[in-house]
Amino acid sequence: MAYSSEHNLDMSKDMNAKLVERVQGHFDDSIAAKQKAREVLPSKVVDAIRLMHQALASGKKILACGNGGSAADAQHFAAELVGRFERERQELPAIALTTDSSIMTAIGNDYSYEVIFSKQVKALGQTGDVLLGISTSGDSGNVIAAIKAAHEKGMSVIAFTGKDGGKIGSILKSNDVHLCVPADRTARIQETHLLLLHCLCDGVDHLILD
Asked: If you placed Cys at 127, which of 16, 107, 113, 154 could pair as Cys (CB 3.0 to 4.6 Å)?
């Protein structure tokens, strides 16, 4: 059956209208997720800021890890500390454990993927350092292993999770900080994680510079 160009144009307009609605829905959902997080997380974010600042002011460093989009967040955060966030200041020591392909593939091949971060924590972490572990589900096995290794090294942990916090929520200690985004969709959790990272960067800079 042949369709006229006018009919195809009408279909295109209808499809565009539906896509606009979908896009608007993502904006609305993201705003709602952040507003809900705003109600429950700010005081804990302050705890995380102070924990990181105390470590950095004492000559310690931040190690960060995660998988997929969370790996990108770990790298983003390390870049903001080593380089800068919004203002000039001294370089701050941070290492994303997600960037050395030789280390990760060697460990993954010789041992297992579950220990690609924990072995790096054991090698690089020191008492007083902070581990930033990012897992949208809270159940990432290699992040859990990294947290356990950090505890063994006398490090504090800041955990970014979502949903109900998963297994990570049950293994954190009293001096750790758990930032659990009250959302279920991975995209919404990741979007809020990025906002939290920027809050940490801004807060650390404020304590250093102001």
From this structure: 154
Q: How far apart are CA 84 and CA 70, in angstroms?
A: 20
**Which residues, at least 6 apart from 144, have a Cβ–Cβ distance to it below 8 Å?**
135, 167, 168, 171
pLDDT by residue (tens digit) across 149-184? 999 999 999 999 999 999 999 999 999 999 999 999
Q: What's the order of all strands across the beta sheet hosting 177-181?
A: 94-96, 62-65, 130-134, 156-162, 177-181
The dihedral sign for the CA sequence 29, 34, 38, 40: positive
Closest CA to 165 of 143, 149, 146: 143
pLDDT value at residue 119: 98
Sign of CA dihedral 169, 173, 175, 176: negative
Which CATH entry fits the domain spanning 41-209: 3.40.50.10490, 3.30.750.24, 1.20.81.30, 3.40.50.880? 3.40.50.10490
Give φ, ψ of 185 to 5 degrees: -80, 130
0.90 surpassed by pTM: yes
